[in-house]
Amino acid sequence: MWEVVFDYFDSMTPDQFVRTYWYLIFLELPRYLFLDYMVLLLYYLRRFSMKKTYKEAQYRFWSESPLVTIMAPGKNEGKNLYKLVKSLEDQTYQNFEIIIVDDGSDDDTPIIGNSLLKAGLIDVFLRNEVRGGKASAANLALRYSKGKYVVHLDADSSLDRNAIERIITRFYLDPEIGCVGGNLKVRNAKESMAATLQAMEYLSSISVGRIVTSYLGIYRIISGAFGAFRTDVLKRIGGWDIGPGLDGDVTQKFQKLGYKVVFEDRAICLTSVPVKFKTLTKQRLRWNKSTVRFRLRKHIDVFLPTANFKFTTFFSSLENIVFNVVFSFLWIVYLFDILWNFTDTFALIIVTKLAIYTVISYLQFFVLIALSERWRSELWLGLYIPLETIYNGYYMRFIRVMAYIKEMYFYSSYKDVWNPAKTSDKALDHGKL
Amino acid sequence: MNVIEAFNREHNTVHSENGLDILFIRNYEAVRISALISYDVIILEYHDPSGAGDLLNKIRAASYEDVYLIPCFLLKLDAQVDPLHLALADGIVERVSIASHHSIVERIISVKNDYKAIKTDFVGRQVVLKLIRFLHSRDIRLKPVPSSNTLMGYSFPFLDANSHLHDYQENIEILKVSVDRGFLSPHFEDVVHLCSNCGSGFINYREVCPKCGTRKHFSEYSIHHFVCGYVGPESDFFQDKKLVCPKCNRQLRHIGVDYDKPSRISECENGHVFQEPEIETYCFNCGDTNKLESIIDYEINTYELTATGVSMALSGITKEESNIEEIDGVVSFSVFKTLLKVEAERRKLTKGSVSVSYISFLFTPKTIKAHLDSYDQFTHQIAALVRNLLQPTEVLTLANDDTFLVMSPEADMKETKKRLQELSSKLKSVLQKQFETTDNDRILVDSFEMEDKESVGILEQINEHINIL
Ligand SMILES: [Zn+2]
Ligand SMILES: [Zn+2]
Ligand SMILES: [Zn+2]
Question: Which residues of chain A approach chain B closer than 8 Å at the C-beta?
Fold first, then answer.
């Protein structure tokens, strides 16, 4: 058995090796290993050199102490609200108002919300008797926001003690910053295999990806789970458009207006992820469909040489499309390529690829663990790295391709039950918003 | 009837019908309550409603059975009879005759005579016995009368006539005691919402901002524009007479199709945003602002006399003859009156002065409740305390449940007044120590000098301040 493997590699010329593993060598290694970790290194070097500047920004922030609006719109989130509010009560920065929007819940949420309001734990509780969707709930909260900055949270998340301070400080580092994304970590990592794998994913690819794109100025999506926005700009663009992918959409609008969009990895938010692969699949299909809907359809103008043309916006969209859409289709091409041309050794190639990924993943993992503020509680995730390579390399890729095809050819996000039909129908009528 | 007399309101006249003496009252001022004992029936000319009401109240508040149970009719003239007054009377007559009410008059008089023949062993608040006897003698129910003059919105005129300062809580307490002891059974009529501070039902329900409590806020529907996801109050969309979305500038056309109104949102003058205003109550009577939860829901009932109530009305030894005399130095009210007469005679001879003072206790329902089971004992203990604080020559009696009378022979009026004031504050602190009463339990004292030659006069003078007769 091992001799077969040995013979296989022994007899392979460098040319053959490149021919067999072209996807790995030309696409994945440069992107996910060299580029990412080069940038990561640069990022930490810069952060170290900017310590004094950061301290000054912090000082400016604290001396101004602006009012921050924290909003958490959602449906049937009542059970999560108390935990969220408690984590806000414990924040190092306290000058904030909390607006909770209950978007047509059919459970105890109205009762819980009103009792939190009575207890003075939240400032505003608004309920829509009829569900309007996530965007409209967030827009309602925005309409009554009084803060200089708006922090958008998912109701089922909770924050590290210094998260608000960290995320808002970023605005004081650079006046051109329009919105800041926070770093998400998985709270329920031990609940199931799916959750564990997502915890790994958030720790490595998602977090690193965001640090890198943010460093390069092409950070794309501020997650609705934890993001901060300049209220004036957010109001100017009219808040969120109807989803899915409303997070990416609103970020894109900030970029179009010339504001910087950055990621703050030290502002940490714990969030609950889907526990079952089935729900996870649905969630990711939705996320990936939005790439097509918003990058290729709604905001295609960023590629056109109009008056508003900006290189960063252009690259940001280009990076998104290339690394997601193009890479995914190339991956299919690659799979067919080896299946067709290397049929005999197909299994061996797949295994070899997995082995290589696993080694690389361990290298990445230890770097990230060394940099993590809660590495003790994350170390155990290392056990799941071999599985993680399958999760990232096959499962996620497959979903991505599925989503792109569905959305490109069938406009399926407009039929998504995640939005009430009334809003989706209207969006479709009005030229594929 | 003499024609001249008939048009002369100065005079009250006595008529005789079926062997009954009927006093026809036209001049309210000329009536002496205690003198009503001499008549069987009263007919009151209803030419001055408020004066007639006052007189009716005085009659029903009297202590003597012969007075407070006396059959009393209203001779209706032009004025509408106030339901509150009608509840205190036994009916309306068109002329000075009781022919139309013969049977009720018979019943009242016969029952009243029964009462005289027997003595009840009733213990507790005198008013309860009076109420029971009033209802029994007439064979009626106690009905609440809607009235904007009372705080609750409903009045029990007989109880109001008999309560100190028209204290509603006292009435509530009396009714509760009567029901608890099985004398009366309640029949539901209505629920009133009362101020927990003063018992008034005249309450304004205000919607206030839950954050700052301001009354000044306005609410608007919020509009959700489906196409662009914008949500805001209706006013954000007003443009000329159209609704135009401020985000995407499209005109709103058809509710339910391109937009809807998912909620109603209020904003206060201080910029607080909310959907459910807090309800605050404002009492017009005492000015108390409070939460809605503080409002007392009080059940208004009609009360029917039970069999127990009837037998109580007819049995035993009366309260006035009860063992109050067992306390050294406390005389019965009748002895007191005799002594007062003697003093009045003496005064004529010696030109000495005699003053009579009252010491009246206005206990809160809480205090009354605490001592309800042994109210007599409680009264005795208080009587002993009062006695200790008086001078040896002074005579003390219990005029009714909670009012003591003190006769001070040959004392200077001013000095007596001052001494009694001191006595009352001493008493107050002793009560607070011994019986855990509070500042809300009040003690009223006042002194009067005997001016005319008749001893009854001074009691009537006192009666104007506080019901004792
Ligand atoms: Zn307010
Ligand atoms: Zn609109
Ligand atoms: Zn009041």
Answer: 104, 114, 117-118, 123-130, 132-133, 135-137, 139-140, 143-144, 146, 238-242, 246, 422-423, 425-427, 429-430, 433
Query: How does pLDDT run across A345-362, given as a tens digit for each residue?
Result: 888 888 888 888 888 888
Of B117, B146, B161, which closes a domain?
Answer: B117
How many domains does one find in chain B? Answer: 3
Helix (H) or strand (E) holding B91: strand B91-93
**B418-444 pLDDT, tens digit each:** 888 888 888 888 888 888 888 878 888
End position of a domain, from candidates B89, B117, B145: B117
B15 part of a folded domain: yes
Residues of the domain holding B52: 1-117
Residues B271, B330 share a domain: no
Q: Compare CB distances from A126 to B210, B263, B272 and report the shortest one's residue.
A: B263
In a domain, B198, yes or no: no
**Contact criterion met (CB below 8 Å) for A382 and A362:** yes
Same domain, B1 and B57: yes
Any idea which of A36-40, A176-180, A383-387 has the lowest mean pLDDT?
A36-40
Q: Is B29 exposed, middle or buried (0-12, 13-18, 19+ CB in 10 A)?
A: exposed
- Residue B449 backbone phi and psi in degrees, to 5: -95, 140
Tell me: pLDDT of B44 over 80.
Answer: yes
The interface predicted TM-score of the complex, written ipTM, equals 0.77
Q: Mind telling me how many Å the CA of B150 is from chain A's nearest CA? A: 36
> Any idea what DSSP says for residue A203?
I
Integer Cα distance of A284 and A289 in angstroms: 8
Which residues touch A336 (CB under 8 Å, ≥6 apart)? Answer: none
